[in-house]
From TrEMBL:
The gene is LOC112278826. Transmembrane segments: none annotated. SUPFAM superfamilies: C2 domain (Calcium/lipid-binding domain, CaLB). This is C2 domain-containing protein. It comes from Physcomitrium patens. PROSITE patterns: C2.
């Protein structure tokens, strides 16, 4: 299996828990492998209802792709003195990977995914879109296999 790209389009969140006494500036850190965390931009104007409209691009290595793979999206509140966890969203990637198994692009929209607080309770929602990028090498292999089968 070839390497793939995954775009995580961060749209917005609503009704997040306020974790700082001063004005909260929210941002998202995305990861599949905890040793490779990719931060998004900080929204400094909307407090507990941040808007990002920003895309994080991640690489999915062929050797590590599996049907049990999860995307972790951690929402953090940056205050005047400290940064604190707001909550998180964990997305299983099995369905998206299956839709793009032949190498074609695949999209999954999450218009209002619940944000899970560190306590385990839900509070607020997070809207984002996942886009698995096309893999020309996988498409060529699938087309070759299909032509051979005919």
């Amino acid at each position: 299996m070839a390497d793939r790209g995954l775009d995580v389009e961060l749209i917005s969140a609503t009704n997040l828990k306020k974790v700082n006494k001063s004005k909260m500036h929210a941002y998202v850190v995305a990861w599949i492998d905890p040793s490779v965390r990719v931060p998004g931009p900080v929204d400094k104007t909307n407090g507990s209802n941040p808007v990002w409209n920003y895309t994080i691009t991640m690489a999915l290595e062929a050797r590590t792709l599996s049907q049990t793979m999860h995307l972790n999206l951690e929402l953090l509140g940056q205050g005047f003195l400290s940064t604190k966890p707001i909550g998180s969203v964990v997305v299983p990637l099995a369905e998206l990977l299956q839709r793009g198994a032949s190498g074609c692009a695949a999209v999954a929209e999450f218009p209002e995914q619940p944000v899970i607080l560190p306590s385990g309770e839900p509070q607020g929602t997070f809207s984002f879109v996942l886009r698995l990028k096309e893999s020309p090498a996988m498409l060529a292999a699938a087309q070759s296999a299909q032509a051979t089968a005919l």
